[in-house]
Amino acid sequence: MEKKRVIKSLENLDPTLKSLLKKKYPEGFESNLMRLTNAKNEPFFVVPLETDDTMYLVKIAVTKNSEGEYDLEVDEDDNMEDEDDIDVGDDYDPDFEG
Q1: Phi, psi for 6 (deg, rounded to 5)
Q2: Are strands 54-60 and 62-64 parallel, antiparallel or unpaired?
Q3: Which pTM value belongs to this model?
Q4: What is the pLDDT of residue 12?
Q5: Neighbour count for residue 12 (Cβ, 10 Å)
Q6: Counting Cβ atoms within 10 Å, is residue 26 exposed (0-12), middle (13-18) or buried (19+)?
Q7: The pLDDT of residue 71
Q8: Are 7 and 56 in contact (CB under 8 A)?
């Protein structure tokens, strides 16, 4: 069976997927961003995230800076829910600052 393919914005991810994203990219996902273009030929950026049944492309908000390069609009840590709201399981490290 082929996996579903879904494009979702980072701010629309449920807490479980946000936790999975943070676990997959503990050092941040900036180096894993992929640039795609929409039907209007406008660029947007995504990072891949895979679950057992779905392949997600998570849209990340960026802005173009004065040098013509793109900067992340959001701080990854600010987009993640508080640890109290996420089931982090046995791998939880309270000293982790990723």
Answers
A1: -135, 135
A2: unpaired
A3: 0.65
A4: 92
A5: 9
A6: exposed
A7: 64
A8: yes
